[in-house]
Specification:
elongated; single chain; 4 helices; about 130 residues; mainly alpha
Length: about 130
């Protein structure tokens, strides 16, 4: 076993572990906003690590080009998609966890269905 195979195994294992932790977070986190955060961050990094592991196992210019394109697309689109989905959940009235202490969209003037507007700087959250 060469050093490249060991490195590839470590990258693939770390990526798989992060994606597994993301799945666990989907089950354990309290609300849709925390779950979106877990998916947008951990799964993206996990996929990037897996792609780098594949590149380490199959080093060729074509593989490098495909992996580079896939990593760039993942890094650019995953955070934007996560934000868009979380904002859509917010605007549709998905409840926030009672542990949530900060509501940035309410401070920006966004209104949730059923929310009662409060004073400036205060988060407006619907009653559970």
């Amino acid at each position: 076993m060469t050093g490249w195979n060991v490195l590839a195994g470590v990258l693939l294992g770390a990526g798989t572990l992060l994606i597994g932790i993301t799945g666990l977070g989907m089950l354990r986190l309290p609300d849709v906003y925390n779950r979106m955060n877990a998916v947008a961050k951990a799964a993206s990094l996990g996929l990037v690590l897996i792609l780098l592991g594949v590149l380490t196992l199959l080093p060729s210019p074509r593989t490098a080009a495909v992996v580079t394109l896939a990593v760039l697309l993942q890094v650019v689109t995953a955070p934007v998609g996560g934000y868009a989905l979380a904002r859509a959940a917010y605007l549709s009235g998905a409840p926030m966890s009672p542990q949530s202490r900060f509501d940035a969209l309410a401070e920006q003037g966004e209104t949730r269905p059923g929310a009662v507007p409060e004073g400036p700087g205060e988060a407006s959250r619907p009653e559970p």
